[in-house]
Specification:
The protein is of the alpha/beta class. 54% of the residues lie in helices and 15% in strands. It has two domains: 123 residues, Rossmann fold (3-Layer(aba) Sandwich); 89 residues, 3-Layer(aba) Sandwich (Rossmann fold). Helix 7 packs across helix 8. Bound molecules: cytidine-5'-monophosphate.
């Protein structure tokens, strides 16, 4: 069975997807991490970020896998390096390149073949897994998402003002929504889950409930 979890940055997707997969005992596929891994290696090999065919060839050549919650390229654990601000910024043009998205779509489908998986990203329900048994679009208001990020940053000692976080987030949302291929979009048959005012546990409970509803007709 495939469950897709899409939505904007800061909606709590990763935490929810990870927790849901753990609850079900299923695999968790973090597709943002896959784009980040390609970007990390592209930066290391000095492949220009506007060289779409070069980036696609690179993506094709990399063995990106997930093991015990870690992201691997071959045998190399890149889980920490893919989260640096430099990689985050450079991931945008890489994820915007249609040939790269095509390679990633094939790889994501290959990884999900024959297993139960919770897959998380922007285009999983709308493009990559149009026949997924359950599609969820997880979101929260821009203000709520910016407040959460602000709290996290402040806890880490960061001093970015809330307004600045909100502006940067709006820019990222626009970029995600308007890319020519693989734009962030709720699939027509996705269930919308709005997380404003819900605790982490409440979000996971809601997702588990949706899974149970989908499974019931199969087991009845
Ligand atoms: O979710 P995360 O922040 O790790 O995503 C990293 C980058 O990859 C973002 O720029 C996001 O827009 C992009 N992405 C994408 N398609 C996906 C998952 C992430 O374009 N399925």
């Amino acid at each position: 069975m495939i469950i897709t979890l899409d939505g904007p940055a800061g909606a709590g997707k990763s935490t929810a997807a990870r927790a849901l997969a753990a609850r079900l005992g299923w695999c968790y596929m973090d597709t943002g991490a896959m784009y980040r891994a390609v970007t990390l290696v592209a930066l290391e090999r000095a492949i220009p970020l506007d060289d779409a065919p070069g980036l696609a060839t690179l993506a094709e050549s990399l063995a990106i896998t997930f093991r015990d919650g870690r992201v691997l390229v071959g045998e190399r654990d890149v889980s920490v390096e893919i989260r640096t601000p430099a990689v985050t910024a450079a991931t945008r043009p890489v994820a915007d390149a249609p040939p790269v998205r095509e390679v990633m779509k094939r790889l994501q489908r290959r990884i999900a073949e024959g297993i139960d998986v919770v897959t998380e990203g922007r285009d999983q329900g709308s493009v990559v897994f149009p026949h997924a048994e359950l599609k969820v679009f997880l979101t929260a208001s821009p203000e709520e998402r910016a407040r959460r990020r602000h709290r996290e940053e402040s806890a880490r000692g960061g001093g970015t003002p809330l307004e600045e976080i909100l502006e940067a987030q709006n820019r990222r949302d626009d970029g995600d929504r308007t890319r020519s291929v693989g734009a962030m979009k709720a699939a027509d048959d996705a269930v919308l889950v709005e997380t404003d005012g819900l605790s982490h546990d409440e979000v996971v409970e809601r997702l588990v409930q949706l899974v149970e509803e989908r499974r019931r007709p199969l087991t009845a």
